[in-house]
Amino acid sequence: MKIIATEIIGVYIVENFHAKDNRGSFTKTFHRNFFNDNNLCCEFSESYFSINNKNVIRGMHFQLPPYDHEKLVYVPKGKILDVVLDLRKNSKTYGKAISVELSSENFQSIYIPKGCAHGFKSLEDDTITVYNVATVYNQENDFGLHYNSFGFDWEIEKVIISERDSNFISFNQFKEKNPF
Questions:
Q1: CA distance 20 to 97
Q2: Cβ neighbours of 133 (radius 10 Å)
Q3: Among 94, 93, 100, which residue's Cα sits nearest to residue 174?
Q4: How many CA atoms lie within 13 A of 77 on its CB side?
Q5: Are 44 and 132 in contact (CB under 8 A)?
Q6: Can you tell me the distance from the alpha carbon of 52 to that of 134, in angstroms, rounded to the nearest whole number?
Q7: 12, 61, 69, 147: the active-site residue
Q8: Is 61 among the residues known to form the active site?
Q9: How far apart are CA 49 and CA 54, in angstroms?
Q10: What's the whole-model pTM score?
Q11: Which candidate in 67, 74, 131, 147 is catalytic?
Q12: How many Cα neighbours within 13 Å face the side chain of 174?
C-alpha cells in the first residue's frame, strides 16, 4: 500500500495492494499498521455501500462535531468521480475542492479527514461505492451542502439526485455557522 498526498491537507489517495491471477483478483483496502504508521485513523465504527446508476450525485455529506468523522472510500465495482471540499476554517486549503476518479480498475481509495464534505458522481451504471467511517451515524448531526454551491464543475447536464441532497444549503450559507 502507498499513500499520495492531495491538494487538500489531510486528504490522501491510497494505492491499495492488488493481485490478479487465473482465479480472479484480490485487493487489500485497509491495513491497521499501515494506517497507524501514516498517522491516519485506524478505528472505523461503521461501513456502508451504495449502488448507483450513471449520473447519480450523492453529496456533499458530512457530520457536525462532535460526531464528525474520518472516511475511507473505495469502489469495488464501476467508477466514480469522488469530490472532497475542505470546511476547516483554520486550514490552508479551506474552501478548496478536489476530485479523484476511483474505480474497480485503479484499485485506489480516498482517505478523508474530519471537517471535509464528501460527495461523488457515478460514472457508470451499477457502480458500488463503499464508505468506512470513524464515528457512528448521528441523525441530528448529519449535514450536507448543495452539490452545486461551491464552484465545482461536475460536468453533467442531467443530474440524478435525492430530494434530501437537492435541498441542502449552499456553502455560502454554511460559512455563517461553520463549526469546524
A1: 34
A2: 22
A3: 94
A4: 9
A5: yes
A6: 23
A7: 61
A8: yes
A9: 16
A10: 0.95
A11: 131
A12: 27
pLDDT tens-digit map of 158-168: 999 999 999 99
- Residue in the structure block whose three cell numbers are 461505492: 129
Give catalytic status of residue 131 as yes or no: yes
pLDDT number for residue 22? 97
pLDDT tens-place string over residues 103-132: 999 999 999 999 999 999 999 999 999 999
The whole-angstrom separation of Cα 28 and Cα 16 is 6
Secondary structure of residue 40 in the 3-state scheme:
coil
- Name residues whose C-beta falls within 8 Å of residue 178's C-beta, 6 or more positions apart in sequence: 87, 89
pLDDT digits (tens, 9 = 90+) for 28-80: 999 999 999 999 988 999 999 999 999 999 999 999 999 999 999 999 999 99
147 CB burial (10 A radius; 0-12, 13-18, 19+): buried
Task: Give the DSSP H/E element, type plus range, for residue 34.
Answer: helix 32-37
Tell me what pLDDT residue 42 has. Answer: 85
Centroid of chain to Cα 51: 15
